[in-house]
Write a structure and sequence with these properties.
There is one protein chain. The chain has 91 residues and is an all-alpha fold. 49% of the residues lie in helices and 0% in strands.
């Protein structure tokens, strides 16, 4: 649903949508595995945090603006979605 709404709201795409659509993604949580203890508390996905930081830099957003974008902007939500259900239903 997020992909459908994001594409309808901006058919040309945005920087955040481009980040999500990169083949193979920019990175995965496994890329950051060496930075965290194995027995540590579960937290936010390091790959998602890195994505927000990169978007904040690319779009020249303040910390507050980046937090607001994560909360409100559909293209940011789309960029942070890992796996989404297929657009068409089988059956």
């Amino acid at each position: 649903m997020t992909a459908r709404v994001a594409r309808a709201s901006d058919p040309g795409g945005t920087t955040a949508m481009w980040v999500h659509d990169r083949p193979g993604g920019l990175w995965s949580d496994e890329d950051f595995a060496g930075w965290y203890r194995r027995d540590g508390r579960c937290g936010l996905s390091p790959a998602r945090l890195a994505t927000v930081c990169v978007l904040q830099f690319l779009l020249d957003l303040s910390v507050r603006q980046a937090a607001e974008a994560v909360r409100c902007r559909i293209d940011f939500k789309y960029a942070l979605v890992r796996h989404e259900a297929p657009l068409s239903r089988a059956g």
